[in-house]
């Protein structure tokens, strides 16, 4: 059976009751938690790839912790550009921490070492990996046994995704990050990130990657760098369900608030002389 875990991102909680861009981030996180409990309580854990809060107040982390306390599986809380490191670490035991006080850590799994990175720069919305954080990453990767695969998680993408406004605030040290992981590229099975509030997948120097819509608001799909406006949207929220075995790592994106019609595969209504598709049993 595949090893299963959950990817959540950009929950953007504030104080309880706040409507953020016309949406209630706590209610939408509660709905995600309820859906995960109902359908994926067999997952090993969930990873939340940053922007846990919108403004980083202690009250917002308490709101986040209360919502996540209902989750029946453990979770790893990471930081993004809307978080504050000390407030997060003070509020959430599920946030990893390294010897330098950054929200970084690892988790050993049957499918390799999962590595959680802190790309928060508390003076900018762009991402940062300073020398200390890159040093921790280099040591962590070097210390693993030579046949150990890795799965890496970070808030900011370490490369441009083509959504210009988000590329302006991607990881600043993309070259330095690429240099640190260069000897391990073949062993990094997947890179998960948040930040862009969009469903995007592809590869980065042969490392497969994916990201997701957040659980509250989204970033509208705009590739034109000269677009008049950088827009947010009410596209549906999602979480990821990841199935991993030795050969494959499969990411399912689930629009957990979707209420569109569900129906069995039968012949289309009003057509009496056809099966639902090609009928292979026909003579
Ligand atoms: Fe975000």
Which structural category fits the helices and strands?
Answer: alpha/beta
Helical coverage, percent range: 10-25%
Main β-sheet description: 6 strands, mixed
Low-confidence stretches: none
Read across the widest sheet, the strand sequence of neighbours is 4-5-6-7-9-8
Head-to-tail CA distance between termini: 39 Å
**Secondary-structure element string:** EHEHEHEEHEHHEEEEEEE
Number of helices: 6
Number of strands: 13
β content, as a range? 15-25%
Q: What is the mean pLDDT?
A: 96
At a glance:
This protein has 283 residues and is α/β, with parallel strands linked by helices.
Descriptive overview:
This protein has 283 residues and is α/β, with parallel strands linked by helices. It is built from six helices and 13 strands. It has helices at 25-39, 58-69, 85-91, 131-143, 164-167, 174-181, and strands at 3-8, 46-48, 75-77, 105-109, 112-116, 150-154, 188-193, 200-204, 207-211, 218-219, 232-233, 239-244, 249-254. The protein has a six-stranded mixed β-sheet, with helices on one face. The longest helix has 15 residues, at 25-39. The protein is globular, with a radius of gyration of 20 Å. The chain binds fe (ii) ion. Fe (ii) ion binds next to loops.
């Amino acid at each position: 059976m595949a090893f299963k875990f959950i990817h959540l991102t950009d929950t953007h909680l504030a104080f309880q009751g706040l409507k953020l861009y016309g949406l209630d981030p706590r209610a939408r996180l509660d709905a995600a938690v309820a859906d995960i409990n109902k359908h994926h309580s067999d997952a090993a854990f969930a990873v939340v790839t940053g922007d846990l809060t919108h403004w980083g107040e202690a009250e917002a982390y308490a709101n986040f912790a209360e919502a996540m306390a209902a989750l029946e599986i453990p979770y790893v809380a990471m930081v993004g550009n809307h978080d504050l490191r000390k407030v997060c670490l003070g509020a959430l035991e599920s946030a990893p921490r390294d010897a330098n006080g950054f929200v970084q850590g690892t988790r050993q799994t049957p499918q390799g070492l999962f590595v959680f990175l802190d790309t928060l720069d508390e003076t900018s919305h762009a991402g940062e990996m300073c020398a200390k954080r890159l040093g921790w990453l280099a040591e962590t990767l070097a210390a693993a046994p030579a046949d150990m695969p890795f799965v890496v998680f970070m808030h900011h993408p370490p490369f441009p995704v083509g959504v210009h406004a988000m590329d302006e605030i991607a990881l600043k040290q993309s070259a330095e990050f690429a240099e640190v992981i260069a000897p391990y590229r073949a062993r990094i099975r997947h890179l998960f990130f948040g930040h862009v509030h969009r469903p995007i997948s592809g590869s980065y120097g042969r490392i497969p990657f994916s990201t997701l819509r957040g659980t509250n608001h989204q970033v509208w799909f705009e590739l034109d760098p000269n677009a008049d406006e950088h827009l947010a949207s009410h596209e549906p929220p999602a979480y990821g369900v990841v199935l991993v075995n030795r050969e494959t790592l499969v990411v399912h994106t689930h629009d957990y608030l979707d209420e569109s019609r569900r129906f069995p595969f039968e012949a289309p209504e009003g057509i009496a002389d056809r099966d639902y598709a090609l009928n292979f049993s026909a003579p």
